[in-house]
Amino acid sequence: MSEQASEPPRVAVRRPHRADARRNFDALLDAARDAFAEHGAGASLEDIARRAGVGIGTLYRNFPTRQDLFDSVYVGEIEKLCDAARDAADLPAWEALVAWLRHFVSYMATKRALYESLNRDSEMFRSCRVAMYAAAEPLLARAQQSGAARADASFDDVLRLVSGITSAAFVDDEQRERVLGFALDGLRTGPA
Amino acid sequence: MSEQASEPPRVAVRRPHRADARRNFDALLDAARDAFAEHGAGASLEDIARRAGVGIGTLYRNFPTRQDLFDSVYVGEIEKLCDAARDAADLPAWEALVAWLRHFVSYMATKRALYESLNRDSEMFRSCRVAMYAAAEPLLARAQQSGAARADASFDDVLRLVSGITSAAFVDDEQRERVLGFALDGLRTGPA
DNA sequence: ACCATAACGGAGGCATGCCTCCGCTACAAC
DNA sequence: GTTGTAGCGGAGGCATGCCTCCGTTATGGT
Lengths: 192, 192
Prior knowledge:
- 2 copies of one chain form a homodimer.
- Chain A is an all-alpha fold.
- The first copy, chain A, contains 9 helices and no strands.
- In chain A, helix 1 packs across helix 2 (45-52) and helix 1 crosses helix 4.
- The longest helix of chain A is centred in the middle third of the chain and has 23 residues, at 66-88.
- The N and C termini of chain A lie far apart (39 Å).
- The A-B interface holds A 118-119, 150, 152-153, 156-157, 160-171, 175, 178-179, 181-188, 190-191 and B 118-119, 150, 152-153, 156-157, 160-171, 175, 178-179, 181-188, 190-191.
C-alpha cells in the first residue's frame, strides 16, 4: 500500500502478439469506449462487436467478461486524466486547478459510463480513484496553500461539486462555462 | 400557450372507478416509482408488476405504454416539487431559494430516472419543466432583487449547477451539505 | 341474492442479449 | 512455400423482457 499509489492499475487483459489480433483488440476497445459513452455501462456486447467489425467470439476471447472490457476502457481514460494533471502542474496554483477541472468536465461530458463509475465500489475502481486523486489532488493543495482556494474543501468535495456539471446536457458550451464559473467562485476563498 | 403554464400537465391515464382496480393502480404507481428510482427509466415492467403484486396484464391495461407509466410517475414527482416551491414562498428571499434547492437536492438524490429526464426532450417533459420553473423561478428572481444572489445566473443555470450534486452518491449527508454550501456560495453576489 | 361485465393474471410468441463451442482462416516461424 | 497453431466468427442454447390475448374472478348495481 505504501509503495506508490500514483499509477493506475494494470488490467488483467493483454494486448495480443499477432498483427490481426492486435487490430481487432484495438478496434474493440475503441468501439467499447463509444458504446459505453453512449449507453452507459450496460451497453450491448454484441453491438460493440458489430461496431468493431469483429465476431462476438473475438470479443469474448479478448475480454472474457464484461468487466474485463469495461476495466480496460476505464483504466485508459483514467490514465489520460492523470496525464492532464501532470501537464497542468506548470501553471500557477489556482490556474492549474481550474485548468484540470475544466479538462475533467469537458472530458467527462459525454462519458456517461465513466461518470456512473465514480461512485462504484470495487478494488478496480478504488485504485483508479487513488491514482487519479494522487495525480490531481496536489493541484488543490497548492491552490489552498496559495490562499486562492478555500481551505475547508477536500479534493473529493471538489470533484463532486464539479462532476455534476459534467453530466448535465447543457444548452451550449457557453452555459456550461458559466455554470462551471459559479462552482469555481464557490470554491474561492469565500466571504465568510 | 399564454393562459397559465404553471400547472403540471394532466396525464392521459385515468385512475379506475372500481375499488380493487384503484388499489392495483396505486400499487403500480408506487412500485414504478421505486423501480425507476433504482434502475433508471429502463426498469423492467415485469419486475414492476411483480413488486406491485399484480399480473403483467394489469399493468398494461392501466398503462398501455411504458411512456404512460413513466409520465404518470414523473408528473406526480414534479407536482411535489411545485408544492415545495409554494411552501417556501413565505421565507425571506435568499432563505426561500436555498430551502427549495435543498429540497430539490435531497429529493432527487435517489431519483436517478427523474434526473435523467431533466434533459430529455418531448412535449411531456417540456411542460413539466415549464410548470416547475414557473413555481420555483420566482424564488431566484426575489433573491436576485434582494441583492443576495448574483444577477448573471439564470434559473436554468442554478438548477444545473445544483442538480449534479443530486446524482452523486455522497459519503454522508454532511458532505452533501458542505458541497451544496460551496455551490450556494458561488451563487451569492460574488467578489468581482 | 343475482348477474352483467369490468378487471384480473399469466401463458406464450417474439425480440434481444449473453455466452459457449467448434469448424474454418490466415498469420508468422521456419 | 509449407505448416502448426493462434485467432476468427457466427450458429445456437439459454435467459430475460416486451406485449397480446383470452379464460377466469369478483365487484357493484339492481
